[in-house]
Amino acid sequence: MTSALHWSYLAAAVCFILALRGLSGPRTARPGNLIGAFGMALALALTLSATHLSNVVLLVVAMAVGVAIGAPVARMVRMTAMPQMVAAFNGVGGGAAALVALADYIRSSNGAALSTGNRLAVMLGVVIGCISFAGSVVAFAKLQELITGRPIVYPGQQVVNGIMGLAALALTVTAIAAPHVGLVAMVGLIALGLGVAVVMPIGGADVPVVISLLNALTGLAVAASGFVLHNVVLIVAGTLVGASGTLLTRMMSQAMGRSLANIIFGAFGSATAVAGAEGAGGDRSVRSGTAEDIGTLLAYSNRVIVVPGYGLAVAQAQHTIRELADLLESRGVEVIYAVHPVAGRMPGHMNVLLAEADVPYEQLKEMDEANPLMPNTDVALVVGANDVVNPAARDSPGSPIYGMPIINVDEAANIIFLKRSMRPGFAGIDNELLYNPKTTLLFGDAKDSLSALVAAVKTA
Amino acid sequence: MTDFLTLFTIFVLSIFLGIEVISKVPSILHTPLMSGTNAIHGIILVGAIAILASADTTTLRVIGFLAVVLATLNVIGGFVVTDRMLEMFKGRGQQARRGQNARRGQNAAAPAAPAPPAEPAQ
User: Fold this and answer.
1) How far is CA A354 from CA A191, A318, A337, A407, A435, in A?
2) What percent of chain B has pLDDT over 70?
3) Could you tell me the pTM of the whole model?
4) What pLDDT sits at residue A16?
5) Are the beta carbons of B15 and A239 separated by less than 8 Å?
6) Residues sharing a CB contact under 8 Å with residue A423, sequence separation 6 or more, in sequence order
7) A444 vs A80, A102, A398, A431, CA distance in Å?
């Protein structure tokens, strides 16, 4: 029976590798995910049948509770809320890894029966798992807008974080040398604090990158628990996730044109710059137009570039923008969608949304293709996007988003912003572009505004 | 059965494997891949089951119970969320084909095989 268990672990590990490879290509992604789920089911089924079970009732109840909460939540959640769901489900995995390591410590005579190497593995599992859990909770809260998406910074933050890190390190060393369950619990608590402290100062637009990093960390915590339990499949799967997750995190930060270090530590010291930018926005005037004016402008343009953002997703306006685009095309206007790699709240967000509205693929342009067209464009129509067109990323070195590549809508002859309000974007910084003399604003829900524009173009 | 060095060897090899296997990913797939790897580390459920199944004190039962609940959430949520994200990609191909069919005046039934999403331009 145990031999069957080990074969199933090998099969599961192979499935996970195939799953990762599948998930890296658009054609193979969905089968890849299913292969991963199959491997998981196999490993779980064999574990349940092979383990000498006591506490069967507890086990069944625990799994039933997990399924009863997890399945409906994952099924019901709106597409716009997906990134925070990933954060939540990642956090619980980190928490589980920390608990598994802690439990093994307790049952091994409170660590006395463990070798030094295993004690180290327990501590790593607890520390990394707790950081991932707490960090994911904060990331979830930021994306769910339970707390502000802006960086939360205070003077002396780095010192406080440094002290926490050193305390965790010192207690870890002590707990390895002289095992005591109280020490492990204290280290766990400090690690929870560290998780909160690390994610708090990270600005909203960067949160998905941090979730990816926490995801990689959970993988490592799982691998550490695998060392504790001498379980090969935990080590393989955890390490695969840790390694590929780290690489993925790097790719995501590269897509934003930033280094990972800049994303994680960038908020420190930028507090003053953010405050400065806010102050500047205070009393300047913006120009807002009527749907009729803007509709006429659009109808008599040669080329319109649409820049979609999170506002489009919130308003579920993808079908209405398509309608407007079709109408303009029928009048001979060239319509292009310029999709920024991080527009929305996750990479690929806009592609998914526009695909749902069946937007012709040729009309979708990536940022690098769209930018050269911008100077010969009559109207840049920004629908619910903000940070991804903010020239501060190009021009003002003090800005938290400085260095992020943007869509250069300011090079178009006219700029139209469809916005709900003057509220700044997710990164919480003011956008100079709103005060640009070429800019006209149309306030309101993106769907309502677009419907009004459709009506206006029809009569133009 | 397995000594530390064997486990460590597996660990090191897995690092290289994890990096090699996802060498080049288009940005549109970053989030689904993150979500997919998120589901895979739900394998900690195997460890959580081992803890709860052998727990002989109340403390261990409580910890094991919590661990199994959390890990089950990770597994279920991870795979379902990933599948839902990828479902959205499938839509484009199907709808496009449906649109063509409609234009030709044919039956607009969805094709049996899921159409592959178009490759994002690099």
Assistant:
1) 41, 6, 9, 18, 29
2) 70
3) 0.74
4) 96
5) yes
6) none
7) 19, 52, 31, 18
- pLDDT, one tens digit per residue, over A279-317 is 444 446 777 888 888 888 888 888 999 999 888 888 888
Cβ distance of A24 and B22 shorter than 8 Å = yes
As for the ipTM of the complex, it is 0.77
Cα–Cα distances (Å) from A20 to A8, A348, B73, in that order, read: 18, 18, 20
pLDDT in tens, A362-413: 788 888 888 999 998 989 999 988 888 888 888 887 777 777 888 999 889 8
| Interface residue of A34, A99, A212 to substitute, partner B, most B CBs within 10 Å | A99
Residue A407 near residue A370 (C-beta atoms within 8 A) = yes
Optimal mutation site among B12, B14, B89, B94, interface A, most CBs of chain A within 10 A: B14
Rg (CA), chain A: 25
- Work out the mean pLDDT of chain A and round it to a whole number: 86
Neighbours of A323 (CB within 10 A): 17
